Amino acid sequence: MATQRIIDFLATRRPSGPCLVVDLDVVEENFNAFRKALPDSSIYYAVKANPAPEILRLLASLGSSFDCASVAEIEMALDAGATAPRISYGNTIKKERDVARAFELGVSLFAVDCVEEVEKVARAAPGARVFCRVLTNGEGAEWPLSRKFGCVPAMAIDVLARAEALGLKATGVSFHVGSQQTNVEAWDSAVADAAFVFDTLAERGIQLTLVNMGGGFPTRYLKDVPSAAEYGRAIFEALRRHFGNRIPETIIEPGRGMVGDAGVIKAEVVLVSKKSVSDENRWVFLDIGKFGGLAETMDEAIRYPIVTERDGDARSPCVLAGPTCDSADVLYEKTPYPLPVSLTVGDEILIEGTGAYTTTYSAVAFNGFEPLRAYVI
Amino acid sequence: MATQRIIDFLATRRPSGPCLVVDLDVVEENFNAFRKALPDSSIYYAVKANPAPEILRLLASLGSSFDCASVAEIEMALDAGATAPRISYGNTIKKERDVARAFELGVSLFAVDCVEEVEKVARAAPGARVFCRVLTNGEGAEWPLSRKFGCVPAMAIDVLARAEALGLKATGVSFHVGSQQTNVEAWDSAVADAAFVFDTLAERGIQLTLVNMGGGFPTRYLKDVPSAAEYGRAIFEALRRHFGNRIPETIIEPGRGMVGDAGVIKAEVVLVSKKSVSDENRWVFLDIGKFGGLAETMDEAIRYPIVTERDGDARSPCVLAGPTCDSADVLYEKTPYPLPVSLTVGDEILIEGTGAYTTTYSAVAFNGFEPLRAYVI
Q: Cβ–Cβ of B94/A270 closer than 8 Å?
């Protein structure tokens, strides 16, 4: 996944220290693949995955809309050329003053998942459109999905009814099947829940129009994942199955699926050692770790492909760890990572599929190390 | 643990958004308590715990030395008034160019835990002093201690012998009993290992002089912890037991124990909700979470005391979560946190014992949220 442009950039510029390089051509390809796979859905890029201005500008110019988690992300999307009607404030947890600020900036589509949040939006953004997030079980997702966002469908009905009663426009339902979701069937039961909410509210005279199907689209790490086209087919079938001929307006919010495979981190081997003469596994220490941008290795959830210049050589299992003095800064230990036996101090390696959820996750100065630098080319 | 000075600062200045406030008087008390408990040990403050310039300046003026994890931290300590002989480069994972830079700055005490690292130090800092870190089991520590740092004592002998052979000064042994270590006996077996390394090398004509006993000194979160005086007694007894009358020079490296209880985070309740009508626990969402400075809630390891203005009211269990769109940004769920039933949106709360491992752990811009601001008073 290190494209020729990325390889050439690193060879020519030789940036020192760990850094991420993102190839905009891959982002554009991903955007076009989503548009082709789901031609009737609006694409709201999940800005939190990677808010680099170059990425936002490219996507704005391609006609993308934007799913924002905070006022700062809304401002970034506007700065990149998005118009307010193309922005969704997708965080269900918002301060009332942030709702007011977003509304001032022209944003009029808000996520909610409880009556308390509806009341805030009604006060701070009168007349705005809201969609209610429902809980899904997240089965099949590689990045853990907790119960943090959403409510049960029965409660969503009350939440949306309350929104209408307070003068808001109850627009629809959202869900999220879990990040790095590799099971194309995962959308089916969530779409069924959405249809249940639509039907029940219709009986009360409230016509919903929007299903926000969230993100979850995976990027290819070590295992093959289904293509955007396969997801498109499965999602369309689910919509047909549960909505029949009255297929609603739909939104998708790819983040990882849009930028994950567009980025590669260049890192350096700082130390290779053993803990005892009889130690079976070597320890390989890099100049980047859990606090420098690879936070998604938490619980060894995301397993990135690693490319070295010695990949033809014999391999043996390694514990892979970061450079900080924190004992929790270990990337892969429960499942050691096979790396070339010849790997040595000073070697540069590439960590692929790191375009999403790396730069902004990076700690501001842990152990005095600077945050991950990024080049978008 | 919110001192009157901190309470007054918050009442007067009313900073908006989440922030940490550190009371330097508490840091000074902690320093004096360590000095009194272990009068024969040198105190090397673990800069990574909180590198705020005001803290480093205070400790430098009090006569503290500094344990640094990177060149950046060494420069911060020097800027704060420490002299190079009072600085230890305590990270066992260093780039050779960083060793060279530290040596240029006058630092001549380095941590190692393998022959490969000794070779780097010998090339980049000829003649410097090195101590070898040995593995401990970390039992009794609340923050997980992995096998990341250190080697078995038998290997430490070879590492230090190699250092001498390469023209370095093999100075001693270090260990770390695990952060937030609440068992005062934990130092005993590590001191025994150190004595074994001393004795074996003495037989080979190499006289070690230094035992670096690391950190691990706890701060008071929800449970009482032993006092510095109790640790001092246990450590002195361990040294007597294993070194007899030849008690070596000793170093301690408190980080959390020096600044943990000196800091309080002010945060705001953004949302209180339930996921269904029958949900037993409320969800309480704050404007700070795992990516905004509370990384040590990972796996619910550190459980901070929380003070609200409604603490006299009845309590019920809550799931506590942060403000980001990341489903992993949940602080306490496996063991819900009892909070006042009357707690409501907009309430300010204090999270105590947050002076260590918060500001620098904070993500640089995750979800567009700015890193944790800090005020040192």
A: yes
